[in-house]
């Protein structure tokens, strides 16, 4: 009887392990806070968005680009991009009425959804580095494409940022392509372009 129970128990463990190993791995791996890509509420998303604080902060910044499918050539439609960043003091500023992940990400956040041409644009302002000076200035970005779970891409970082050392540049993983951008002055705006390639350097992407 004990032998029979041992065999049954062993079979259950094997079946359980096989079931877990054959489960679908999450695209992009762990991603704390990526669920915020869904927290746009009743907003009607367009390919262009202006983040809170744009009109009252400087330097103002415009980030544009095209989202491509994995081949790097075909524009990707109906892709949602979510970005957030610190204020000019390096803080993820809140107003006190935030819900969900905005309690941590702050209210300086925005969402866009690509059209048939795959293009997107964010109007915002240049964030400051964290007060401790240990992290380069950056803008977080999360992507949600049809048929995939949400995942993060390399943050936008700035070529002229003195905190972006050679060592840090070498460690950039280029998820979705390089996040390193060059800002150019155009009137009262700092202009930057970054194209995104879905699945590029993204774990478990098929």
TrEMBL record:
Q: Would I find Transport among this entry's keywords?
A: no
Keyword S-adenosyl-L-methionine listed = no
Look up the coiled coil feature and give its residue ranges: none
Q: Which sequence ranges are marked TM in the entry?
A: none
| Leader peptide range in chain numbering | 1-21
SUPFAM superfamilies for this protein:
Aromatic compound dioxygenase (SSF49482)
Keywords, A to Z, come to: Dioxygenase, Oxidoreductase, Signal
List GO molecular-function terms, semicolon-separated.
ferric iron binding; oxidoreductase activity, acting on single donors with incorporation of molecular oxygen, incorporation of two atoms of oxygen
Note the PANTHER family from the entry: DIOXYGENASE, PUTATIVE (AFU_ORTHOLOGUE AFUA_2G02910)-RELATED, INTRADIOL RING-CLEAVAGE DIOXYGENASES DOMAIN-CONTAINING PROTEIN
The molecule here is called Intradiol ring-cleavage dioxygenase
Task: Name its species.
Answer: Leptobacterium flavescens
């Amino acid at each position: 009887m004990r032998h029979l129970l041992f065999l049954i128990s062993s079979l259950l463990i094997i079946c359980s392990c096989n079931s877990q190993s054959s489960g679908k791995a999450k695209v992009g791996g762990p991603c704390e806070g990526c669920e915020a890509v869904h927290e746009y509420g009743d907003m009607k998303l367009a390919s262009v968005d202006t983040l809170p604080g744009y009109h009252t902060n400087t330097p103002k910044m415009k980030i544009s680009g095209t989202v491509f499918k994995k081949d790097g050539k075909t524009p990707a439609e109906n892709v949602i991009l979510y970005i957030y960043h610190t204020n000019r003091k390096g803080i993820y500023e809140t107003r006190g009425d935030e819900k969900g992940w905005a309690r941590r990400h702050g209210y300086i956040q925005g969402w866009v959804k690509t059209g048939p041409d795959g293009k997107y644009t964010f109007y915002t302002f240049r964030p400051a580095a964290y007060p401790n000076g240990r992290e380069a200035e950056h803008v977080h970005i999360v992507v949600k494409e049809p048929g995939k779970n949400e995942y993060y891409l390399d943050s936008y970082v700035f070529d002229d940022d003195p905190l972006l050392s050679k060592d840090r540049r070498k460690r950039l993983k280029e998820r979705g392509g390089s996040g390193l951008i060059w800002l150019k002055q155009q009137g009262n705006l700092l202009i930057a372009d970054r194209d995104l390639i879905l699945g590029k350097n993204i774990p478990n992407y098929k």
